[in-house]
Design brief:
Layout: E1 8-11, H1 28-40, E2 45-48, H2 65-78, E3 83-86, H3 96-105, E4 109-113, E5 117-119, E6 133-135, H4 139-152, E7 155-160, H5 163-174, E8 182-187, H6 197-203, E9 213-217, H7 224-233, E10 237-239, H8 256-269, H9 277-285
Parallel strand pairs: 1-2, 1-10, 2-3, 3-4, 4-7, 7-8, 8-9
Antiparallel strand pairs: 5-6
Helix pairs in contact: 1-2, 1-8, 2-3, 3-4, 7-8
Length: 287
């Protein structure tokens, strides 16, 4: 159990998921409205991706800084004091798109994919769900992202898909690639770390002392035991339709607001109150 306040992050929309099949906001107006529901339920941080605009285009990603700014502005207008956490994840060496978006919206936090992973998923029939791919994040790519984050004032949130990546963060700090960091333990990718509360307790041992952390838990209702344990262990808490479409009872969610309501209950069950945006800023930035 812990007594300090829990910071809630809403993973607002993610990448590639088809908005015609799932409650994923795509347009600036949809993102603002969905963010407001999550904000009212207790989320202080919005982790956002950008999608191509126009009929039939919403399940494709976009690095258009004009789109990024329109989406960010809509969220900030709907949610006073909200903290923006921008994705920077991209395959390949070209980081110009994510960096252009960082420049356009100057988010308070930016997700930094901290190491490479064979990104795999297998269907029940033994066929690949998508062609096996390498999510490549070599050190020079990480450094380019970190340099842009430092220039734009964004706090790096290191997304860690495996234990070795968790341990790499201390090396990045030791090599002076960055002077600040928080952790995001990504659990539930089929070829990465599983959603496992025993593993979560071990991961905390390998992070830099005093660094804030949270989990991205990908899956169905089985992830909620992990959220509860993260709340008990003192972590920040994150969920949203990027990570799951399922509530603790196994029913499909209507959207981000409903998921954040249940995440706030995890904090409450752990004896923690939910941080307001101002309180979250004080914890994260001393502001």
């Amino acid at each position: 159990m812990t007594s300090h306040k829990a910071i809630l992050t809403c993973a607002l929309n993610g990448v590639l998921t088809n908005p015609k099949q799932h409650p994923v906001p795509v347009t600036p107006e949809e993102m603002g409205a969905s963010a407001k529901q999550a904000y009212d339920a207790g989320a202080s941080i919005m982790h956002i991706h950008f999608r191509q605009q126009g009929e039939g285009m919403g399940h494709f990603p976009s690095w258009d800084p004009v789109v990024a700014k329109a989406c960010s502005d809509a969220i900030r207008d709907a949610c006073p004091g909200v903290i923006i956490n921008q994705t920077t994840g991209t395959v390949g060496p070209d980081v110009s798109g994510p960096i252009a978006c960082l420049d356009a919206i100057t988010p308070e936090i930016a997700a930094c994919n901290a190491g490479s992973l064979n990104y795999l998923k297998l269907r029940r029939n033994g066929q690949w769900a998508w062609p096996p791919m390498l999510f490549d994040n070599p050190v020079e790519k990480v450094q380019a992202m970190l340099d842009a984050m430092k220039r734009t004032g964004a706090l790096p949130e290191f997304e860690c898909f495996d234990v070795g990546i968790v341990r790499s963060i201390a090396l990045y700090l030791g090599a002076k690639m960055t002077d600040r960091a928080q952790y995001n333990f990504v659990m539930g990718v089929a070829s990465g770390m599983p959603v496992d509360t025993d593993l979560l307790e071990l991961l905390i041992k390998y992070k830099v002392e005093d660094a804030l952390w949270q989990c991205t838990l990908i899956g169905r209702q089985e992830i909620w035991a992990g959220h509860q344990r993260a709340a008990e262990l003192g972590g920040m808490l994150r969920t949203g339709v990027e990570d799951t479409f399922y509530l603790p009872n196994g029913e499909r969610t209507s959207g981000n607001g409903e998921l954040i309501e249940h995440l706030a209950k995890c904090a409450e069950n752990a004896g923690r109150s939910v941080a307001s945006p101002a309180e979250a800023r004080a914890i994260l930035f001393g502001a």
